[in-house]
Design goal:
This protein has 376 residues and is α/β, with parallel strands linked by helices. It is built from twelve helices and 17 strands. It has an eight-stranded mixed β-sheet with strand order 3-2-1-4-5-6-16-17, sandwiched between helices. A hairpin with a 5-residue loop joins strand 14 and strand 15. Helix 5 runs parallel beside helix 6.
């Protein structure tokens, strides 16, 4: 019986420089008894030459050969017209935001596995947790980007020309990305404050040496799976009003709040931006097709509003750190592949708690109840 082929596709989404497998994980995949095919220049965006994949034991080949593989690895979903019945597609597929693609996967009989559906509460799946690995990178990069964009110093500096006060930075949303941003901002020397609607984050913020922003009369929003729940309209209005009064106290604001499958909560309004000092910076890590945390932010664009505040729509920062992000993501993917191919061939079992969470479509149907409910 011929070995199962795993194909690593070259990403085609604008600005996407990551790759789903790096040479270091090719040997791990081959230990499963599979053949690894890598599309020509798939790793170019992460500065990984084809020769490195060949040395690791992969076959570098043209797209048609890769897309004929039984299992395909990607970062973002490829063109569904290239997929074939019976294939297994693994990646960050964002099924909630890709209704048309989900329908195409069903029609073509493709089994799709989306790592962004993996609950963070499954301890035995931590090595597969791509959202956490990529959010950690995004938070770090957001802090560095904010420091680079801000027109003054982050740390306090005492020089012969006088003393520069440290920047005051507010991080909204204290998940993995938020905590990573807070830690990086502190290492850069700024004074950092964090805020989240989940009550347990108070101790998390303080444990990393930051202040917690207390907002009176704002409801807590603890959700499931380690995420915040969506606020009601009344709760959201109260939160925006309270934040609007405080945002102007800060030189830099980094927003990271997202709710899976839903429009990100709007935390920084146009009125709040008007209340900030000229030269202030806002980095919106949640900016994307569904919107962002900052009113008027545009994904992958930097704009300066009329009052002199710079708004950075930083929706895909891991792609800006493609070598490091690809290495982390590839380890997550290889761990999931090992789980799905225990005997060297795909073994789809939606009764398994991991597969029940991440398998979206199988045998011509949407088998994930959360996705099916959201898209119905």
């Amino acid at each position: 019986m011929a070995a199962v082929r795993i194909g690593v596709v070259r990403e085609t989404a604008p600005g996407e420089r990551r790759v789903a497998a790096v040479p270091a994980v090719v040997s791990r995949l081959r230990q499963l008894g599979v053949e690894v095919l890598v599309e020509t220049e798939a790793g170019a965006g992460a500065f990984l030459p084809d020769s490195a994949y060949v040395e690791a034991g992969a076959t570098v080949t043209e797209p048609d050969a890769v897309y004929a593989a039984e299992v395909l690895l990607c970062v973002q979903p490829p063109d569904p017209t290239r997929l074939k019945a019976g294939q297994v597609l693994i990646g960050l597929l964002n099924p909630f935001g890709n209704k048309e693609q989900v329908a195409a996967w069903v029609e073509r009989g493709v089994t799709t596995v989306s790592l962004d559906l993996l609950p963070r509460t499954l301890s035995r799946a931590q090595s597969m947790d791509a959202l956490t690995s990529q959010a950690n990178i995004a938070g770090y990069k957001a802090a560095v980007l904010a420091a680079d964009t801000y027109g003054s110093y982050f740390p306090m500096l005492m020089t012969a020309a006088g003393t520069a006060k440290p920047a005051q930075v507010l991080v909204l949303g204290v998940g993995v990305a938020g905590l990573s941003a807070i830690g990086t901002v502190r290492r850069l020397g700024a004074v950092v404050t964090g805020y989240d609607i989940r009550p347990e984050t108070r101790d998390e913020v303080r444990s990393v040496g930051a202040r917690f922003l207390e907002l009176a009369a704002v409801a807590e929003g603890k959700g499931e799976g380690g995420y915040a729940r969506a606020l009601t309209d009344e709760e959201r209005a109260a939160q925006q009003e309270a934040l609007q009064e405080r945002i102007g106290d800060f030189d830099v604001v980094i927003t990271t709040a997202q709710v899976p499958g839903r429009r990100p909560p709007q935390l920084v309004t146009q009125e709040a931006l008007k209340g900030m000092r000229p030269g202030s910076v806002v980095v919106d890590l949640a900016a994307g097709p569904l919107g962002g945390n900052v009113e008027g932010s545009v994904p992958d664009r930097t704009i300066v509003v009329a009052d002199g505040v710079t708004v950075v729509g930083a929706g895909n920062l891991p792609a800006a750190m493609a070598p490091g992000a690809s290495a982390a993501y590839a380890r997550n993917v290889s761990a999931l592949v090992a789980h799905l191919l225990p005997e060297g061939a795909p073994a789809i079992d939606v009764a398994d708690e991991i597969q029940a969470a991440v398998v979206v479509t199988h045998d011509g149907a949407i088998v994930n109840p959360t996705v099916r409910s959201a898209l119905s």
